[in-house]
């Protein structure tokens, strides 16, 4: 490992830990302070922390790798994500910020579901919390695995040292600084990702002699790589673009909307967040596209297409700069891990400990439990990640669809339809999750080739599509068939509408 890269890595870790210390000294020691930052996030921190926690290593590894292999046709998933993120800001963000305050100050997504429907039986809170804890523990493990592999492949460290280094730094600043530390570090990490995804493709293009020469190299190998529809079917395009549906149900993303200081700040956050996302996604796609041209021109050896960002960082830049660029990958990984750790610990604290063990627990006690939960979830994630060939990564590829189908329709409809009932909410959540699991794991399609194995339906159509649709229908039908909500629930819904009008967000 180059000394310059090691110096950059050390500086990055020190900055992250420093932010954790700052947040610890400036965060109120109560539940809302630890889990939502006291609802005081500014629009810039809100938007970039949401973006950074969303994208993870996929932005710097998966997307450039897909572009490297397939060309422009790999852009459909990016288009779907851009549309989904924009709709999330427009449809969910304003109302969720107001509703979670009006619904007796809900501080977690399961807590919002329970208070929105006055679910005194706690079924909604328990089931949604179980879904969050299980999926996010596995999700966190995948991030730790990615950190271990990055340390091994890019920095030359042992894989297990990478696991502990990645998890250790994230746990340290999440443990002490809580939501504020997670959000501020995500903001800084989002800035690092932004700079890296602008620098790498631009320098690579300049190194090749400009955009025209880059296009000539690519077209000289395969003209189909510049065709957006190459190899795509209608079902294929729908499957890729449907990734955007997942945004409405991702707890680690929409919790940012609950924490912003005012609903009036959301348009500013939207403009910042969508600008950041547009530039970084274009940069990620450009990295894969230009990387293909660079490897072709120089005859370089690239064993894994998903490492094209790492390859270009190391061959085009001084070691000190390359270390900064590699830290961008670590930033993407760590920003997602920290958000998932905090959401999981929040659910363990609010939705289990307080509900079943200590209903009268003080804020100080709940913050302590939240911190212990961060450590507990992290240790389980590290244990799962110790086997580098673990099937955990296969499970994580479907977590986005699971959250999107189980929570997406539930979140949207609960914010807008006053006649929605808790039984409708429960039916939609359970059916959405079950359909995704069935669609993903049950082999019902014939083999793609002679002698092959039966395939799940997910091989043809992404599971979030049927899961989302069936969840939506279930919520509507069951709500109409079940007893109407209590007067207090309807009054809260009407009060939210009035607050939205007062804020000038809705007419």
Automatic annotation (TrEMBL):
Keywords: Amino-acid transport, Cell inner membrane, Cell membrane, Ion transport, Membrane, Sodium, Sodium transport, Symport, Transmembrane, Transmembrane helix, Transport. GO terms for biological process: proline transport. The keyword Plastid does not apply. It is a multi-pass membrane protein. It is found in: Cell inner membrane; Cell membrane. Belongs to the sodium:solute symporter (SSF) (TC 2.A.21) family. This is Sodium/proline symporter. The gene is opuE.
